Amino acid sequence: MRWTFRRLVPPFRQGRPRLVSLGRRAADAVADFVLPRTCAFCGAIGRRDDDWPVCAACRRDLPWTGAACPRCARPLGAAAGRDLACGRCLVRPPSFSSAYAPLRYAFPVDAAVKALKFNADLVFVPALAALALPWLRQQVRNWDCLVPVPLHRWRQARRGFNQAMELARWLARHGGLPAVDAAVRRRRTRPQSELPANARRANVRGAFRVVAPAVPARVLLVDDVMTTGETCGELARVLLAAGAAEVGVLCMARAMPALRAAAVQTGTAGSKV
Ligand SMILES: [Zn+2]
Ligand SMILES: [Zn+2]
User: Fold this and answer.
1) Quick one: which ligand is closest to 72's CA?
2) Whole-Å CA distances, 33 to 62, 80, 124, 147
3) Where do the domains of the chain lie?
4) How far, in Å, CA of 172 to CA of 180, rounded?
5) Is 163:150 a contact under the CB 8 Å cutoff?
6) How far apart are CA 51 and CA 179, in angstroms?
7) From the CA of 2, how far away is ligand 1's center (Å)?
8) For 158, what's the count of Cα atoms within 13 Å in the CB-facing half-sphere?
9) Nearest-CA neighbor of 242 among 220, 215, 217?
10) Is 64-265 assigned to CATH 3.90.25?
């Protein structure tokens, strides 16, 4: 299997200091200029065109979401009808009106997200965002702006970047919508992955504050991974209260809460931080 021993087995290091991260960015930029472009997932040398940064073979084999709930992006069985909300959304609809995730949070997407967040492997910004771009281009008329899910400023300073902001900026450049930092995270929250599903809503309650002077009417949130949707739900709630008419979610990957809970117990889950 080509994904097991290429670049997707980095020594994940958390808390990379800001200066190291900036140096890594500069080194990546130089390497990108000097070296041939390679597939972000398997390392295959690609062309400097639409085949980069994800080669055709990886695009074919990645864990695509397939049929999913249009409200929360939860993958549904192949037999599910189009536009049919899942049972959870029927019982307790989220505050966002729709959600889309091109990929499931499974290997090698989970490794890519961890490499991006904890190893500052920023090639996975275009690699993941490019996989969401076709959908965004189809949807572009339905939205006014992209809003990245903010990190608390201390966490962002420690990491050197906010992965959701990097994804939103890339998608803005290529998708034709402005990216707006409309909100900040005003208090530090525990990583959602450390909490059981029923504690996640309380963990993020009141975590966000809108800072944009005027919130556009139709806001599309951008994040890397969505699990229970509580983080995006809380941010959507405050944006709606601040004047947005509709809030949707575009995340690169959708994780399933039940699987994540099992992963937490074994200490293997990525953290939504
Ligand atoms: Zn590849
Ligand atoms: Zn749903």
Assistant:
1) 2
2) 27, 45, 17, 30
3) 64-265
4) 9
5) no
6) 25
7) 8
8) 11
9) 215
10) no
Q: Ligand 1 centre and the CA of 231: distance in Å?
A: 31
Q: 117 Cβ partners below 8 Å, 6+ apart?
A: 159, 163, 224, 270, 273
Tokens of 1: 């299997």
Ligand nearest to the CA of 80: 2
Phi and psi at 219, nearest 5°, equal: -110, 130
Q: In the chain, which ranges are E strands?
A: 98-100, 103-104, 145-148, 183-185, 208-210, 218-226, 246-254
- pLDDT in 10s for each residue of the chain, 273 residues: 567 544 554 433 333 445 556 676 777 667 666 667 788 898 887 665 555 689 888 999 999 999 999 999 999 876 556 678 899 999 999 999 999 999 999 999 999 999 999 999 999 999 999 999 999 999 999 999 999 999 999 999 999 999 999 999 999 999 999 999 999 999 888 777 778 877 888 888 889 999 999 999 999 999 999 999 999 999 999 999 999 999 999 999 999 876 444 444 444 444 444
Contact (CB, 8 A) for 182 and 212: yes
Distance (Å) from CA 58 to ligand 2 centroid: 28
> Ligand 1 mean position to 16 CA, how many Å?
27
Task: Tell me how far the alpha carbon of residue 48 is from its chain's centroid.
Answer: 25
Cα–ligand 2 centroid distance for 104 (angstroms): 14
* CA 257 – ligand 2 centroid, Å: 12
Ligand nearest 54 Cα, by number? Answer: 1
Dihedral (C-alpha) 203, 209, 215, 216: value to the nearest 10 degrees?
Answer: -30
| Least distant ligand from the CA of 93 | 2
Q: 212 CA to middle of ligand 2, Å?
A: 29
